[in-house]
């Protein structure tokens, strides 16, 4: 079971569990000042130097005393302990959301969502590399990541505030921020699993989908990342946010698909020709993609549900996770 934030299996460090912070166990010692061990803490604290000496002499007494140090409070009722983890997990997820909401506005949402796609979009199945790992912080000088310094700087403020209470990885921070960007603009509410571990090095270059790809190239690219044609089309719907010309730039809805069906770039007028990327326009020329574009144009609820599911899949791809319980 993976460690998660908004979910039952989030593995906190033992020191963060309320019971571990307050429960102490005393063990018999040959010293008048016995050593004490804080169960659930990574560091064993002895009450005096004499106690340390006596403890080190335990072996000479034929191991008559055995001190068991646990990083998990096993003496708890298992159900009570699990409920504690769940409560802390929910608090952690709420903490990140609150931090993001303080710095995120509708006008900044598109940039934050793009940050998610560029961090997670480097994943490829065969190489088992890239993905949602926070490596984007080392990749801002790449041409495909131009303009992402600003949304990252926005999240830096939120992350600093959250870190003062409970450290959070960049991967988790970005994944949650993208979900909040969708929500604040009227899109579906997305619960993001937490517990990702950050990469300490940049991902390989040249792994993001190219804007110039045709539909066939896009499908092949996304297939290498583990996504179907339907998921490709649903993810592309994120372009409804921002300045690509698909409706209100600060409203997350199904306008992207409705406008694709009308192909306004074919108009003789100047501005419609600026709508969308070449890869957006390519989708509507492919029969398989067109079926999903039509479905989402006619049913916003279906688009919201499918986008929610594929977003969760996107931010989990390539992620390395904290150990499970």
Tally of contiguous helical segments: 12
Strand coverage percent? under 5%
Strand order of the largest sheet: 1-2
Main sheet: strands, sense, barrel = 2 strands, antiparallel
- What are the low-pLDDT stretches, counting only 5+ consecutive residues below 50? 1-87
Radius of gyration: 25 Å
Q: Alpha-carbon distance between the termini? A: 7 Å
Total E-strand runs:
4
Helical amount = 40-55%
What structural class results from the helix and strand content? Answer: mainly alpha
String of helices and strands = HEEHHHHHEHHHHHHE
Quick one: overall form?
A: globular
What do you see in this structure?
There is one protein chain. The chain is mainly alpha-helical and 325 residues long. It is built from twelve helices and four strands, in the order H-E-E-H-H-H-H-H-E-H-H-H-H-H-H-E. Helix content is 45%, strand content 3%. Helix 4 crosses helix 6 (170-184). A two-stranded antiparallel sheet has the order 1-2. The chain has helices at 18-22, 49-56, 78-103, 106-120, 149-163, 170-184, 215-224, 229-236, 255-262, 278-283, 287-298, 300-316, and strands at residues 24-26, 36-38, 196-197, 320-321.
Question: What's the arrangement of secondary structure elements?
Answer:
Elements: H1 18-22, E1 24-26, E2 36-38, H2 49-56, H3 78-103, H4 106-120, H5 149-163, H6 170-184, E3 196-197, H7 215-224, H8 229-236, H9 255-262, H10 278-283, H11 287-298, H12 300-316, E4 320-321
Helix pairs in contact: 3-5, 3-6, 4-5, 4-6, 8-11, 9-11, 11-12
């Amino acid at each position: 079971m993976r460690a998660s934030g908004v979910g039952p299996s989030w593995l906190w460090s033992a020191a963060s569990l309320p019971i571990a912070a307050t429960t102490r166990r005393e063990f018999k010692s040959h010293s008048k000042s016995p050593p004490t061990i804080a169960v659930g803490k990574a560091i064993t604290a002895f009450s005096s130097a004499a106690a340390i000496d006596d403890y080190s002499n335990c072996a000479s007494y034929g191991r008559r005393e055995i001190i068991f140090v646990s990083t998990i409070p096993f003496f708890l009722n298992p159900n009570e302990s699990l409920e504690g983890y769940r409560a802390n997990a929910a608090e952690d997820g709420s903490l990140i959301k609150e931090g993001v909401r303080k710095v995120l506005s509708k006008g900044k949402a598109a940039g934050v969502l793009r940050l998610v796609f560029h961090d997670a979009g480097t994943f490829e199945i065969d190489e088992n590399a890239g993905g949602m790992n926070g490596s984007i912080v080392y990749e801002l000088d790449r041409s495909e990541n131009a303009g992402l310094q600003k949304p990252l700087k926005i999240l830096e403020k939120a992350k600093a505030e959250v870190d003062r209470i409970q450290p959070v990885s960049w991967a988790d921070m970005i994944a949650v921020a993208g979900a909040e960007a969708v929500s604040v603009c009227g899109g579906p509410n997305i619960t993001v699993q937490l517990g990702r571990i950050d990469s300490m090095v940049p991902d390989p270059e040249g792994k993001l989908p190219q804007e110039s790809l045709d539909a066939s190239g896009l499908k092949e690219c996304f297939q290498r990342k583990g996504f179907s044609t339907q998921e490709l089309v649903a993810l592309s719907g994120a372009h409804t946010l921002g300045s690509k010309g698909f409706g209100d730039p600060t409203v997350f809805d199904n306008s992207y698909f409705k406008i694709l069906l009308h192909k306004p770039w074919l108009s003789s007028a100047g501005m419609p020709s600026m709508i969308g990327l070449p890869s957006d326009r390519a989708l509507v020329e492919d029969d398989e993609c067109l079926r999903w574009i039509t479905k989402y144009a006619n049913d916003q609820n279906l688009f919201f549900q499918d986008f929610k599911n594929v977003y969760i899949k996107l931010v989990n791809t390539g992620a390395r996770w904290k150990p499970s319980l």
